[in-house]
Design brief:
- The complex is a heterodimer of chains A (158) and B (399).
- With 158 residues, chain A is α/β, with parallel strands linked by helices.
- In chain A, 23% of the residues lie in helices and 27% in strands.
- Chain B is mainly α and 399 residues long.
- Chain B contains 17 helices and eight strands.
- In chain B, strand 7 and strand 8 form a beta hairpin.
- The chains are: A alpha/beta (158), B mainly alpha (399).
- Chains A and B meet through strand 3 and helix 4 of A and helix 1, strand 6, strand 7, strand 8 and helix 14 of B.
Chain lengths: 158, 399
């Protein structure tokens, strides 16, 4: 749902000014802004948002993948950012294909992403290029399959 | 005790020691792989997943109301906080207003939960470091809070008392008198704990300078809650993005700057006192009669009387409890200040009666990630202090 307010948002505006290709869409829902970013532009956009002196999104709250099986692109990965001193939140969203879900790791921008990305890999099978130690975190090391995918049964396999 | 990182002595051949998953001081099923050089910890790697029960996956198979009971079990020491975060997220998607009376009750109970949670933290942290009497005193006091929860909801811990739209039940008429008794006696108890610990030379030796994390590192590691506030960053969601009428209450964000275990101890004890202040203010605001949940036909169940006397009430009741209600499609992220830090709930709704995706950003999961930063370079005994000071709850770490 695009809206006029989302387009007028100053952060979106600054992102577009910096690199118009980094913003492929904006969604506004219940007062929250989500910026859809092409996966090739993700890390640079994150670096910009965290280091730019007028934006300073220094805190990564959460990385949440959502499996939209069976539509393509299949995986939606949400990055919840927070600027502590500007008291503002924003969400970035990348869409990954189901056949080969891979995106660059943002651990170089926010070290906290380490465990978030491991969890995304463990439960969804999304690979993060450049992650220092991408291995399972919640499931046992020899587990097969990615439990939170929509084609994985709730009861599991016996 | 020195406050700087200690240099290893002797031939540096690292020994790998496994701590946990069954260990009295890991506060749950946490495994920490320690690489030691003598007694110095060269590397500490937390390994988790021993309590993973697939809560997020189960939420996708339940209706929005049914999933509330699952949320209690994540951070099981502050279940009402989890309820609150989840209910607020769903209420945000539904875009409904909660009556002020219900909001004030929510604030009061959330703060009592914070006190109860910090008491467990203090008791277990102290007993880990050898102060055994504090453990018993804290749990004795916590009984009073659990008795209130039982009086309100029938349950001591997994109350599920907060529901979508307000509270589950009307609170009993004299419950505030019982809360008043807590307000009358607690401050003296907190003074007792401080008398036992704050000026105690052994306590100070075991916690001062131990587990240091700088503000910059804490922010980079996504650390939140008392861990972050003890390093000097005044990030408290109750003040920054107020929810459930917290903006109508007068309280302070307690911070310290030392960034070590002692500073975190000071922050949490001060937070207990602030919580009691908030409870007192909430008691003054709660009216004896009034609505305890919002009235949104078709989404919030009607009252029992309405259900039994009017046909619309009966139909709504039936539809809500068989089909569930369907919020509009969309995604929200709602964060609250749980006793451990930023507890965030991300809900993606697809317009059906079940959450399409419910993600819980557990503060303990992220705070635990900083354990290597706290413990590396220090002695094994300090690892116990560091784990205790992060105040992790494995139910939340693993979900």
């Amino acid at each position: 749902m695009e809206s006029q307010d989302a387009e007028k948002n100053p952060v979106v505006h600054k992102l577009r000014e910096w690199d118009a290709a980094a913003v492929s869409g904006v969604v506004e829902f219940r007062g929250e802004i989500t910026v859809v970013v092409p996966r090739t532009h993700l890390v640079r956009a994150c670096e910009f948002l965290s280091t730019d002196s007028s934006l300073r999104f220094s805190f990564l709250s959460d990385i949440t993948p959502v499996d939209r099986f069976p539509i393509e692109p299949r995986f939606e990965v949400n990055y919840q950012l927070l600027s502590l001193d500007r008291r503002e939140r924003i969400r970035l969203q990348v869409w990954l294909s189901g056949k080969d879900p891979v995106v660059d790791s943002v651990t170089s921008v926010w070290p906290t992403a380490n465990w978030h990305e491991r969890e995304a890999f463990d439960l969804f099978g999304i690979r993060f290029e450049g992650h220092p130690d991408l291995k399972r975190i919640l499931m046992p090391d020899d587990w097969e399959g990615h439990p939170l995918r929509k084609d994985y049964p709730t009861e599991g396999y016996r | 005790m020195t406050t700087s990182v200690m240099t290893p002595v002797g031939p540096g051949k690292a020994m790998v020691l496994n701590m946990g998953p069954q260990h009295p001081s890991t506060h749950g099923v946490l495994r920490v792989l320690l690489e030691l050089d003598g007694e110095i910890v060269v590397k500490a790697e937390p390994i988790i997943g021993y309590l993973h029960t697939g809560i997020e996956k189960s939420c996708e198979a339940k209706t929005y109301s049914q999933a509330i009971t699952l949320t209690d079990r994540m951070d099981y020491l502050s279940p009402l906080s989890n309820n609150l975060a989840y209910c607020l997220a769903v209420e945000k998607i539904l875009n409904i207003e909660i009556p002020k009376r219900a909001q004030y009750v929510r604030v009061l109970l959330a703060e009592l939960t914070r006190v109860a949670s910090h008491l467990v933290w203090l008791g277990t942290h102290a007993i880990d470091l050898g102060a055994m009497s504090v453990f018993l005193y804290c749990f004795r006091e916590r009984e009073e809070v659990l008795k209130i929860f039982e009086y309100l909801s029938g349950q001591r811990m997994m109350t599920s008392y907060f529901r979508i739209g307000g509270l589950a039940l009307e609170p009993p008429p004299d419950w505030l008198e019982r809360v008043q008794r807590i307000l009358d006696t607690f401050p003296a108890h907190i003074d007792e704990y401080e008398e036992l610990l704050t000026g105690n030379r052994i306590w100070q030796a075991r916690t001062k300078g131990v587990g240091y994390i700088s503000a910059a590192d804490a922010i980079a590691m996504g650390v939140s809650g008392p861990l972050l506030r003890a390093s000097g960053v005044a990030y408290d969601i109750r003040k920054m993005f107020p929810y459930t009428s917290y903006d109508e209450f007068d309280f302070e964000i307690k911070t310290q700057s030392a960034g070590d275990c002692y500073a975190r101890y000071q922050v949490r004890v001060a937070e207990m006192r602030e919580s009691l202040k908030i409870v007192k203010q909430a008691m003054g605001k709660i009216t004896p009669t009034g609505p305890f949940r919002a009235e949104v036909p078709g989404i919030i169940p009607p009252s029992r009387e309405e259900m039994k006397t009017s046909i619309e009430g009966l139909i709504y009741h039936f539809k809500i409890f068989t089909e569930g209600f369907a919020p509009p499609p969309g995604e929200v992220y709602q964060a609250i200040e749980s006793p451990r830090g930023e507890l965030g709930v991300f809900i993606a709704s697809d317009g059906s009666a079940k959450p399409y995706r419910a993600k819980f950003r557990a503060p303990s999961f992220i705070n635990l990630q900083s354990l290597p930063k706290l413990a590396e370079g220090r002695l094994i005994a300090d690892v116990v202090a560091c784990i205790g000071t992060t105040d992790i709850v494995l139910g939340e770490v693993d979900r």
